Amino acid sequence: MSETWLLLETSGRGGRVGLAVAGQVVRSTNLDPARRHNRDLAPTVAALLPSDGLTGVMVSVGPGSYTGLRVGVMSAKALAYATGCRLVAVPTFHAIAEQTPPEAKTVEVIADALQGQVYAQRFRHSERGEWQPANALRIEPTTEWVKQLGDGIWVSGPGVALWEPLLPPGVMRVEVERRTPDLEAMLRAGLRLPALTAAEVIRLEPLYLRGSSAEEKAKSERG
Predict the structure, then answer these.
(1) Which CATH class is domain 99-178?
(2) CATH class as words, domain 4-92+181-222
(3) Cα 10 to chain center, whole Å?
(4) Domain 4-92+181-222 identical in fold to domain 99-178
(5) In a 3-state reduction of DSSP, which class is residue 64?
(6) Distance of CA 23 to CAs 8, 169, 204, Å?
(7) Calpha distance 205→138 (Å, rounded)
């Protein structure tokens, strides 16, 4: 029997919801970026849910929009708990790496972490043709991150446009339209990841690495 997965990608200003059957995305809907995810997500999901059962939910866990990720993760957890289906947490940068051109061997995925910093993670193209993380997701000053780049390294992710003037010569850029995750890439990455255990579902949180802007501001004021 073929597997049916609900896909929730809410890491950006907008969001995407889709349904995949037998390894192919068969239906998808874009959420309105001008409205809050929690207002549109539930009815969109309800319209996509199949009548003959759901294998599981794949949800993007960041880094990305603080509010969007929290709404997506909480919705995925509630659905998995209510239906007993599987839940797979897909790091957003894993999906973005999947969209790197096949001729690349190494890619650095970045996003703006504010205050002159980037979220960054490196991926390498394996002999099996899969993009695998070469190090852990991290936050570091942009000026330090660019020192690690060299010829043959590609860059991708929503942070490229912001920090492009700092990129050294010889660094290749992934095309603009492939720097944010689409549902097909999210599905490919998610199918290689294990489903969470019941205990892991309860503990699941988005990959922020630090608090929201409001939390960081409050912390600095207290300090």
Answers:
(1) alpha beta
(2) alpha beta
(3) 8
(4) yes
(5) coil
(6) 15, 39, 25
(7) 16
